[in-house]
Structure formats: C-alpha cells, structure tokens
Amino acid sequence: MTASHRTCPERADISVYFAAGINVCRKADMFRDAMAETERRCLAAGPVRIRTNAFYPYGCIDDVPERKLGRFVARQAFAVFADMCRRAAAGYGGTALYRDVRADYDVAGGGNLFLVGHSGGGIAAYKAAQLLIRDGYPVGGVFMVGSPKVPVRKNYRDLVFAVEIGRRWADPITRCGFHGFRPPRLRARLPLVGGHPDYFCSQSKDEAGVSNLNKVLDAIWQWIRPAAPT
C-alpha cells in the first residue's frame, strides 16, 4: 500500500514502522511528527541509524470521490472487523502491512523491528507481526495505540503493548472488540488531551505543556530505545 518514506543512508540499526487505521488522508501525514521525534530520540541516545516509515494497510481516502467516500470507509471498517474476528494472522490489513514492511525492511531496514499501529492499524500491526516472526524477522514489539480489543495469543502477550486514553469513554474505539481471557499483558492508560484522533498530536498539550505525542512515545520508549554503547 501507499507509504510515506523517510530516507536512511545505510541499512538501519533500528526500524520503526507506523500503521494507520481507516478514514485517513495520506496528505495529512499523521505520523510525521511521531517519526521525526522517534528519530530524534534514537539519535540522541547514541550513534545509531534509524529507519522509520508509515503505511496505510486499509487504504487511504485521498483520491476517493466524495460520493463514494461513505461506501469506501464502510469497506475499510468491514476489513478491520474481519481481521479482528479472524484467528489466523493472514487477513486484509495484516497481510498488506506484512508485505509493505518486508519490502521496506529488506531494502533499507535493519536491526530490531517495531510496529506502531493506530486504531485499526494496531490490528494490522499485530497480525503482520505474526507473519513477520514466522519468516524470521526480528520483531521487538507491537504497539496498539487507540486500537480495538482483540485476543492476543499466549506466546505474543509479552510482545504486544496496548495504549489508550485513561479517561473513561474518551476513546470509544478502545471499548470495541473483546479480549476474552487473552488481553495483552502490557497496557498503559495515559492522561491525554482530546480523543481518538489525537494520540500522535504534538499540538494537544496538558496544563504542563506536555504533548500527547510525547506521552505516547514516553510509554513505549523503553522498548524502542537503543541499547547504551559499551
């Protein structure tokens, strides 16, 4: 699917891939600030080559005529729902993201591979991670940010980290779906400003001036952070 590329002069030491959900416009570049801040943090931690990229596993709405937009988004929502209900890793978004990540990682990626998915993109990230691990890719973590609930397989429960807004009903999307008896073991409820679209917003800040973007990255940084040089 369509990607937003950030260049890397050599094969990376760390690769971080972002996945969007549905009803998203590629031109909005929703992960731009998140990718830039991730790169800044990695580079500040030491001499490391960082690769970031953003993908749209369920498609994007940029070129969809207004008269067809409702049907297009409905098809996207159905694809996410189907992926949530499907026990197998292969599916609509998971397979699309798996192919995109493989193509990018094989050319310019390297090192531990992290998947950060927003909303339905979190479902695609979890599914894609299973396919990537099956093929021997070094997946270091899957971060489902503002995503619907899905059961997580036992051998992936320490790999998947769910992030949601701490205020009750602030994000109805995270109330959708079900974990059953298999929730991700790692979860964070953050005091964010706004609602579902605002997790990666650098302009949404609390009274102390801390942005939603920094709170989300702070929560997942301990996994992505490069190892200290010896």
Summarize the helices and strands and which ones pair or pack.
Layout (H helix, E strand, L loop, with lengths): L2 E3 L8 E6 L12 H14 L4 E6 L10 H20 L6 H17 L3 E7 L1 H15 L4 E7 L14 E6 L20 E5 L21 H13 L6
Parallel strand pairs: 2-3, 2-4, 4-5, 5-6, 6-7
Antiparallel strand pairs: 1-3
Number of separate strands? 7
* Strands side by side in the biggest sheet: 1-3-2-4-5-6-7
Residue share in β-strands: 15-25%
- Biggest sheet, open or closed, and with what strands and sense? 7 strands, mixed
State the end-to-end distance.
39 Å
Shape, please?
globular
State the helical fraction: 25-40%
* Count of separate DSSP helical elements: 5
Let me know the average pLDDT. 92
What class, by secondary structure content?
alpha/beta
Query: What low-confidence regions span 5 or more consecutive residues with pLDDT below 50?
Result: 4-9
Strand and helix order: EEHEHHEHEEEH
Please state the CA-atom Rg, rounded to the nearest Å: 17 Å
Describe this protein's structure.
This protein has helices at 32-45, 66-85, 92-108, 120-134, 212-224; strands at residues 3-5, 14-19, 50-55, 112-118, 139-145, 160-165, 186-190. It has 230 residues and is of the alpha/beta class. A 7-stranded mixed β-sheet has the order 1-3-2-4-5-6-7, with helices on both faces. α2 packs across α4 and α3 crosses α4 (120-134).
Brief overview:
With 230 residues, this protein is of the alpha/beta class.
Name the descriptors.
single chain, 230 residues, alpha/beta, seven-stranded mixed β-sheet, 5 helices
